[in-house]
Amino acid sequence: MEDKIYILVVEDEPEVLDSIVRDLDRFEVFFPIEMADTAEEAREIIQEIYDREEQVGLILCDHVLPGDNGVELLVEMQKTPETFKTRKVLITGQAGLDETVRAVNEADLKHYIAKPWNKEELINIVTELLTDYVIENTENPLAFMQILDGERIAEHIRISGGMTDK
């Protein structure tokens, strides 16, 4: 398989963090999950991943964090070349309308998930966003068919004229 594509979960409440990671366990074989409890720690993890020439395909980020809030982190990621393509999700029960609108407008927010979330909805959103990421940013999306949206990946391969041997 190509370089690793990570899921990053940023949440400062340990029980909530564990619950999100547990709900996403089906993805971990293909998309290792990294965890951070502050925006600063998230930045360090992102830098380590990119220093290894790997990718962050998806970030699920709480709004209320110690230090910089989640919207600030997502906006920053949108302005950074390495993380511009990362799919971004705000998962929170605390963000007000102004902050949510800012995340949508400035961080290319793909989804807002309110706490408490529905596990199946979370899995469906993660599947959709990682499928988008893989189709747009990998040379071999076929490697992800069994865990993501296989029909969309097959359609992409059919339309794009097949696979490369890279």
Task: Offer a concise description of the structure.
By secondary structure, this protein is of the alpha/beta class. Helices cover 43% and strands 16% of the residues.
Can you walk me through this structure?
With 166 residues, the protein is α/β, with parallel strands linked by helices. It has a domain at 5-118: Response regulator (Rossmann fold). It is 43% helix and 16% strand. The protein has helices spanning 14-23, 39-51, 70-78, 97-106, 119-137, 150-160, and strands spanning 5-10, 33-36, 55-61, 87-92, 111-114. It has a five-stranded parallel beta sheet with strand order 2-1-3-4-5, with helices on both faces. Helix 4 (97-106) links the parallel strand 4 (87-92) and strand 5 (111-114). Helix 3 (70-78) runs parallel beside helix 4 (97-106). The longest helix is centred in the last third of the chain and has 19 residues, at 119-137. It is globular.
